[in-house]
Amino acid sequence: MQGIVNSPGCLRQIFPEGVIVAVTDDAQLGSEAAGYGLRHVPLDDVATLPTGSNVVLFLSHHLISKKIRVLFKHHRVLVVPIASFDGTPEAARYTLRMTLLTDYLKAAETATYWIDGLRSGAKKIIFGPLAAPGEGADVTRLVCSLGPSLTVDAWPHAAIGVGDWVSIGSCCELSISKQPSSIGDDTFSMEGTVHASGVLAARDPRSTEEGGARIRRAHQLRAEMTSLGSITLSLKDNVLVSARAGGKDFTEGLLDVTNPDRGLQALELGIGTNLSLLPNVDWRYNSQLNEGAGVMHIGFGEGITGAHMDFIIPESDHHFLP
Known about the structure:
Blueprint: H1 11-14, E1 20-24, H2 27-35, E2 39-42, E3 54-58, H3 66-71, E4 76-80, H4 89-101, H5 104-119, E5 124-127, E6 141-146, E7 152-153, E8 165-167, H6 168-172, E9 173-177, E10 188-196, E11 198-202, H7 209-227, E12 231-236, E13 239-245, E14 248-249, H8 251-257, E15 266-272, H9 288-291, E16 296-300, E17 308-313, E18 318-321
Parallel strand pairs: 1-2, 1-3, 3-4, 4-8
Antiparallel strand pairs: 5-6, 5-18, 6-10, 7-9, 9-15, 10-12, 11-17, 12-13, 13-14, 15-16, 16-17
Helix pairs in contact: 2-4, 7-8
């Protein structure tokens, strides 16, 4: 693991003045945060915080809920939803370190660059070489066609104000998503082949009982794929038609854990804005902080009726086309 943290790190870019408080639902993780120079306050003691406190909320055992959000309505909050991915102690400690190593100013600058590129009237984004490679070439090349109903989720700022509740995912990536029920290419459509290094499995707080069972299987599938190295994905008409790693085909397994009713339709085109974190990433961890460290990621499943699975492509050129 590269990178040494012995202070609040780049969190001062978000909270330039005052004490930075790590609120946690796990005493062990809180102690670890205190070792990095943050003031630790247990989740149960949030009422003791003065109005306008600078809070980094690490949720290892709780999913985000309206009840939790209400507790922080008078504070500046950066929320790190660890339990939505992997709340085990080792994964939580890793996520804490990556949170402190993130360069939030650079991430905001990168998000602004991408937003400006999309606003310029781009109709396509090509990841990989501009010209199609010869037949049989084993390179990442993905053509993303952008539709008129495009919406983008991002927080292209380093500052967080009183009353703001900002997910670390919004700070470290730019997410272009579509609803599972959407038809056609009104938002986006992807076609091509990519080589992913990381895989994440996440759940939505609204996940169903059947979805929860699929999510548990997704964690096992994710661990197996990650252990095999590079994962090759092929998409046609925005549908995953092949996922292979280590000579093994995982396509049917992914169809199962993301809900067969979704048909492996790509539901998210994610643009990583936290690229400076990449040298410190360990792909073995199912941590949201890994998601924004690659140039882009592709998401399948919605996390409710089945797992949301993200495949992270660490490096690639990109081109905006009119």
